[in-house]
Design brief:
mainly beta, Rossmann fold, 1 helix
Length: 147
């Protein structure tokens, strides 16, 4: 565990997994039977949900945007200088920030190595033509089936 968390950090964060039903038609012309997003959130979502922002990252990057993980994480998130309390550009006292791993990425969200629940085989072929628009569609989705 770390010795001390800086006062202007959001503190400890825990990634969350959400599984959704069928993804709308992908650019390659097929659909996924279900998909999982692993995400990290910080701040408080207001009643009108008007303060939510999405922090995007490179296709193969990691969702750990800000704060520290509870298990021996000596590294702060890659956007720790920008996201957190105390007047940072992404001020978590005003905004509810969400950073999710990309669909097809390699850090927990559904990707080529994920198993298709219908066939028991890897989803590899579904990811041959994944484009940014598919990643965006996967983030604009209905309520999760499981949390």
């Amino acid at each position: 565990m770390f010795e001390a968390i800086p006062a202007n950090s959001i503190g400890l964060v825990t990634p969350q997994s959400m599984t959704f039903q069928e993804l709308p038609l992908l650019n390659c012309g097929t659909t996924l039977p279900e998909y999982t997003h692993v995400c990290e959130t910080c701040g408080k979502l207001c009643a009108s949900r008007s303060n939510a922002i999405l922090i995007c990252h490179a296709p193969c990057s990691h969702l750990h945007a800000s704060g520290h993980y509870p298990v021996d994480d000596l590294e702060s998130g890659w956007r720790d200088a920008c996201a957190g309390p105390g007047g940072k550009p992404l001020d978590t006292e005003s905004f509810f920030a969400v950073c999710s791993n990309n669909l097809g990425g390699c850090h927990g969200s559904t990707g080529p190595a994920s198993i298709n629940p219908a066939t028991g085989k890897p989803l590899g072929k579904y990811f041959r033509g994944i484009v940014v628009r598919d990643r965006v569609r996967s983030q604009v989705c209905p309520a999760p089936r499981t949390i």
